[in-house]
Amino acid sequence: MQSSQKTGAKSYLITKTLDPENQETPIQFIHKDFVTEKLFYRRNHFSYPNFVSSFYWLSIGGLVNFSRTFSLEEIQALPSKTLKSVLECAGNKRGFFKPMVFGEQWQKGAISQGIWKGVSLRTMLRYTGVLEAAKEVVFEGYDFGVRTDSNDLTYFSRSLPIEKALHPDTLIAYEYNGKPLPFKHGFPLRLIVPEWYAMASVKWIKKITVIDHEFKGPFQAVDYVYYPKKDSDEGKLPVTTMKINSTIQQPIDRQILNTGFHTIAGIAWTGRGVITKIEVSVDGGMTWSFANLVQSPEKYAWVRWEYKWEVFEKGEYTILSRAMESEGGKQPKEAVWNRKGYGYNAIDTIKVKVE
Ligand SMILES: Nc1nc2c(c(=O)[nH]1)N[C@H]1C(S)=C(S)[C@@H](COP(=O)(O)O)O[C@H]1N2
Ligand SMILES: [Mo]
């Protein structure tokens, strides 16, 4: 956790709603590659589930050769894999869409990162087998509630296409930052789907079912869909991989600075390829310079970057950051507006005043 040496002051999550709990990370205070539990954003559709973890069994069924239930001990005894991966809510930065959209008005902190340890789902599916007809794998969480669009109780569940489910880095995770998963982040087991927005990373997994058709649950067929039009569903597309993005952590928007040297610092990440370059502009986009990468870019993880800024002239400055990735993608000037406000990834912009 970050604390001030002078005052002992700490940073806290930024509260959106309390039940279900939705709170964002104060992203300006994250200077490490992993976010501690205290500062990890929390995104929930329902109240926290109740279940007795000492009776926890994970069942895998549907279109498999042998349906099976696994105990936690069995899962932990399987060959494990550890990876560093970003979790970014598809609604991160929703509050910046113009025209504004409905939904949690997330600023820049619906994102965190850490080190996840677990078993490849692929490894577990080796024990059950998967039938030829398999098309998707459905993950159901223990949490449920009543959605605003139906009177029935609905569980949080989502599917992955079979190829993504069988990707060796799609994990059934049980540890975060070297400790058991915190309850609020899915204890005892959560899915980790690197490269996809975090709605795919189902927490508190109860059961896994292999199916031969498209799963149509509301967290997939209604929510987490890009609707490009305000008044019709024309052109809709599912939300999947994270778009290339960057965030300026310091200075903060509308900060007043003195003349001299300042460090502009931030993070950049992508769901496709790896980040290769970050450019910074201190003149509203007229000229750009390369930022220094604080570490070498890795797949699935954010990269931290810095730019040393020397400013002698008083006035107002618009500072921008723009990331580029290995497959040729770069951050757009404007994000693609969509009715539910997913995937905001415009070039990050702040304003500061030097006086
Ligand atoms: N069971 C369950 N899993 C879930 C959710 C949920 O509400 N219930 N929210 C999803 C969404 S939209 C996000 S962004 C991430 C948030 O994970 P976190 O709360 O651990 O940060 O979990 C995903 N997995
Ligand atoms: Mo999310």
Describe the structure.
- Residues 239-353 form the Moybdenum cofactor oxidoreductase dimerisation domain.
- Keywords: Metal-binding, Molybdenum, Oxidoreductase.
- Pfam families: Mo-co_dimer, Oxidored_molyb.
- This protein is mostly beta strands.
- It has two domains: 4-238, Sulfite Oxidase, Chain A, domain 2; 245-354, Immunoglobulin-like (Sandwich).
- It is built from four helices and 24 strands.
- The chain has helices at residues 72-77, 121-128, 162-165, 218-221, and strands at 14-17, 22-24, 42-43, 57-62, 68-71, 81-88, 111-120, 136-146, 153-161, 171-176, 179-180, 190-192, 205-211, 225-226, 237-238, 245-250, 255-257, 260-269, 275-281, 289-290, 292-293, 303-311, 315-325, 348-354.
- The strands form six sheets. Strands 5-4-13-8-9 form a five-stranded mixed β-sheet.
- The structure holds the ligand Nc1nc2c(c(=O)[nH]1)N[C@H]1C(S)=C(S)[C@@H](COP(=O)(O)O)O[C@H]1N2 and molybdenum atom (MO).
- Residues 43, 89-91, 198-199 line the site of molybdenum atom.
List the helices and strands and how they pair.
Elements: E1 14-17, E2 22-24, E3 42-43, E4 57-62, E5 68-71, H1 72-77, E6 81-88, E7 111-120, H2 121-128, E8 136-146, E9 153-161, H3 162-165, E10 171-176, E11 179-180, E12 190-192, E13 205-211, H4 218-221, E14 225-226, E15 237-238, E16 245-250, E17 255-257, E18 260-269, E19 275-281, E20 289-290, E21 292-293, E22 303-311, E23 315-325, E24 348-354
Parallel strand pairs: 4-13, 17-24
Antiparallel strand pairs: 1-2, 2-3, 4-5, 6-7, 7-10, 8-9, 8-13, 10-11, 10-12, 14-15, 16-18, 18-22, 19-20, 19-23, 21-22, 23-24
The structure holds the ligand Nc1nc2c(c(=O)[nH]1)N[C@H]1C(S)=C(S)[C@@H](COP(=O)(O)O)O[C@H]1N2 and molybdenum atom.
Residues 40-45, 87, 89, 141, 143, 156, 185, 198-199, 201-204 line the site of ligand MTE.
Domain Oxidoreductase molybdopterin-binding: 45-218
Domain Moybdenum cofactor oxidoreductase dimerisation: 239-353
Pfam family, one: Oxidored_molyb
